[in-house]
Structure formats: C-alpha cells, structure tokens
Amino acid sequence: MDDRLISGLVLAVRGGFYRVLAADEQLECRLRGKLKRKGALADIAGGVSVGDWVQISRNRQESGEMAGMVENVLPRSNLLPRPRIANVELCIAELAAREPLYDLLLLDKILLTAAYYHIGSAVCFNKEDLANDDLPNLAEAYAKAGFTVLLTSALHGQGLDSLRQLLENKVSVLAGPSGVGKSSLLNVLVPEYQAAVGDISSRLQRGKHTTRHVSLLPLPGGGLVADTPGFSLLELPPELKAKDLPHLYPEYAAPAAACRFLGCLHRHEPGCAVKEQVASGILDSGRYERYLRLLGDLEAGAR
Fold this sequence. Notes:
Elements: E1 6-14, E2 17-22, E3 25-31, H1 33-36, E4 53-60, E5 66-73, E6 79-81, E7 84-86, E8 90-96, H2 104-116, E9 120-126, H3 135-144, E10 148-151, H4 160-167, E11 171-175, H5 182-189, H6 193-203, E12 215-218, E13 224-227, H7 253-256, H8 273-279, H9 285-300
Parallel strand pairs: 3-5, 8-9, 8-11, 9-10, 11-13
Antiparallel strand pairs: 1-2, 1-4, 2-3, 4-5, 6-7, 12-13
C-alpha cells in the first residue's frame, strides 16, 4: 500500500466528481485515469458509488483549496441498487402514518430488498401526529415480525431520540416514497442539513438540491445517513427466485422448521406451519397475503 494514500468514504457522486470524506475533511475528487480504462472497475459493479470506501491522493489547487484523486476502490460488503449506495449497514423503511396513506406492499418490498442484500432494517412511520386509529395495530404487526418499529414526528419531536440511537455509528439509508417526510426528519437529525446538501451540490457543480441524487450526510452523534430521492415503485432484486422468498421473512423462519415439506412455499402445501399460524392469528394475515402476491409475481416473471 502506498503510504501517501489515505482512505475515505464517498459521500456524493455527480457529473464525474466525487465528494470524499477523508481524515475529517471533505474533498472534491476525480477518478485517476487508470480507473477509467475499460475493465479497470470490472469488479466494482456500475463504477464508484456513494458509500464506497476509496483510497485517494491529495493535491493543492491553484486556488489553495485541497482536492483529491481517487486511486483505488476498496471491496464492498454490499450494494443497494435503489437508492444506489454501497456498504449500507441499516435501511430505515419509512412511510407516513398518513398523507400519503401508507403503501404496505412497497414497505414489504423495501424490507425484502434489504434482507436480500444482507442489510439490517427497521420500520419508521413518520407524521405520527396525523396517524389513523389502525396505526398501533400495524406497528405491532411489524414488531411481531421481528422489526424495530419507530413512530416519529419531525414536527413534534416524537421518537427522534430512538431514531438517533438506531442510526448512531452506522451507514444508514432512509428509503420510502416522496412525501413521507424524509427531508423533515433529516432537517432535525442533521444540523444545517440544507446547507450541507447545498454545499455538496455547489462543489460538485450542480444546481439547487432537490433530492434527485444520493448523498451521505454525517450525523452529530457519529455515523452517516443517506439523503435519497423518493420513489413510489420498487422492483425486487432481479436475481431473487420464488423459492428463496420465504427465507427473507424473519417471522416465517421458526414455523417453517415445522413444515411437513422441505422447501415449503407456505401456499398450497399440506402440513404447513406458517399457514396454520396465519389462520390462528399468530402471523399477520395482511403481510401473508402480500407475500402470496409477491410469490406469484416472481413465479410469473413479473417484477
């Protein structure tokens, strides 16, 4: 290893510029020419991404400002394709308790995608102050399924201390559709949030920040959280097979061990312990119905 190189984390990627956090300093970097050559990044799917650990060299520009050059890209632990970010440790699947009304199929898809890529996950219902009467039951269903569930309100501060503790010292992403309040939460979690993303945008030669790109923002208590574009549709990983879907549901693991058939899909098979627990109310029927829908989609080749 070249002693002149320092390690850093890519905070943002836009227009051929890379914002890298290295030694408590944020540097605007470009890729070294050797990395741009065909095949040089063959083992780094899609090129350098936000969340990648890289090795950079530093140089001083004519203006006196320090800049950098990305010399090497270090191996990843994972790559979340949407929002595209590498080395994620925690995915917070965020929906609004109301306005817009929660899309539980989308929520399940986010949680399944995180599980597929071996990323820890939790559920956050924001705008708790606007919640419908059924929210406590819904929160309880996901808690019983094995997820940490947070009820937050960026307006009133509810649940924010628990969210801070969950995000501390991790690389995390808030994932959910537009309008659920991700930016409102980040305004509270990250002091001078708008100034931070505005600085990244200006330094990477972009205009006004509208959350069209992924950015990692340092948290005061340690760790980083991704500011991501919102989305209303999410495709399951294209490599995911129907036979593997049951293994991505944490609440199905224990009863599945008692199923009569190995490789039970928990649908038509006799002696299925998962179906028995759904029928008895131990497992949430709504989540099971969405599981069957996704299972059918995978078998049909639909995404």
